[in-house]
Amino acid sequence: xxxxxxxxxxxxxxFFGNRLFMVQKFIQQIKxxxxxxxxxxxxxxxxxxxxxxxxxxxxxxxxxxxxxKDESFFQKIIQFIQxxxxxxxxxxxxxxxxxxxxLFQNSILFLLWNIILLIFLILRIIYIPLQLGxxxxxxxxxxxxxxxxxxxxxxxxxxxxxxxxxxxxxGILIQNxxxxxxxxxxxxxxxxxxxxxxxxxxxxxxxNWLQILVIFLYQDISEILAEFDEKYHLREKTxxxxxxxxxxxxxxxxGHICGCLWNFIAMKERESGMADDQLWIGTYKExxxxxxxxxxxxxxxxxxxxxxxxxxxxxxxxKIFVMGVVLISTFVFAFSMNLIGxxxxxxxxxxxxxxxxxxxxNIYMKKRNINxxxxxxxxxYLKYLNIQKNDYFNSEILLEQLEDNxxxxxxxxxxxxxxxxxxxxxDSFDVYKLSQKxxxxxxxxxxxxxxxxxxxxxxxxxxxxxxxxxxxQKQILFDSISVNKYIQFFFFxxxxxxxxxxxxxxxxxxxxxxxxFSKDKFNCSFSINIQRRFPISNKx
Length: 540
Description:
transport; alpha+beta; RmlC-like_jellyroll; 540 residues; ion transport; transmembrane
């Protein structure tokens, strides 16, 4: 009996399993008839076979147009943390920590890492010439840790990060590990590895002159500063101060290297048995810091003015070295003057362009015999527009240069957050689609936005500046509305039909989304009809 029941049970399971398999197979075959689904199943090797130069598999992945690759171990951990209810308060921090070992993005941790790396690389490139220049100063454990160990560890970690740091190719973010690794090995790995190897050799051979290669870390410092400039627009904000600061540091660092080598030559010749009165250091103090200041003084003065004559070369090796320094300083001085000139020229470039434009306007107005009072008004108004143009960048100029998909994402970033703040728009419309209809325009001062009696078709967003409402016939000032005084959007409406005998009236709005910035109007190409009813008092 039990065998019969067991046999029937297995037969039922077998029958049900076969039917379930056939149903699943049928569903899969139906799905495969969809061209959209088949496109989503494309893999990297398929794209390689197609070899479409106008397409990018990374772009398709980024925009979720094809199925994502199998999640890696780290991606699964990140997904678990994001979904874990207990870890919700700290999931962002944990994800950032995991990305240290996975893939660096444009994150706060990456910014902090760059700052730490920048500090210790600067300490390292300053310390190496001092050590090689035979400035005999006492070195203790804390100094070894700060000037040697920590910079070496940081640079080793930077190499590991180089294998995991996302890159951009043709403006597209690449997160494919194999592409990242190949790119890093091709461009930076061998250079970085040689520098790290030289840094480690120091622990076994203190006088190894290969350490001078560490000065190539200056390139890494320049790249980090360039990233800061790109992210925070330091050049525009500091108006040339950032460039001049880098230039001063560069000149002082060249002077630092030359001064250390100047001291090195003197110390080596003293060790070879030459008397102090035959060397420049013979009349100076033996304290290493005092000698360093004397060396730096000589280097900077020689580079900038060819020297005052108080510290002069006495031996043939010192004279040969001074000739080399003078030649180098010639190029450094020329480079410095050129950079300073470019910085000053850039500072006054926009002002000069505007003055040239005003000059052409003056010539035109005189030829046309325009009234002098109007000429003054025109020039003052053009000056105002020039100031407004410098203070505000029109997003349309940026959007015109972007390809369609990126343009849509940028428009959503610009306008989407604004639309989300308004519940009537957020709850009634697709914010993403709505943001694609918005445009941006700059309106000049004292221009009418809406005239009484006209039919309004616009909804305005006031982000900056203010506007004034007047009663047209009586020139009565109703109110002056600014950003912080009222809600961020407003509209004018037209009562199309009013029934005085009825205590209810119908007000129909027909409006188009617009953005306003400092009396600047943004319009779009669609309209929406909303009909509402408002109670009013019946005055007969």
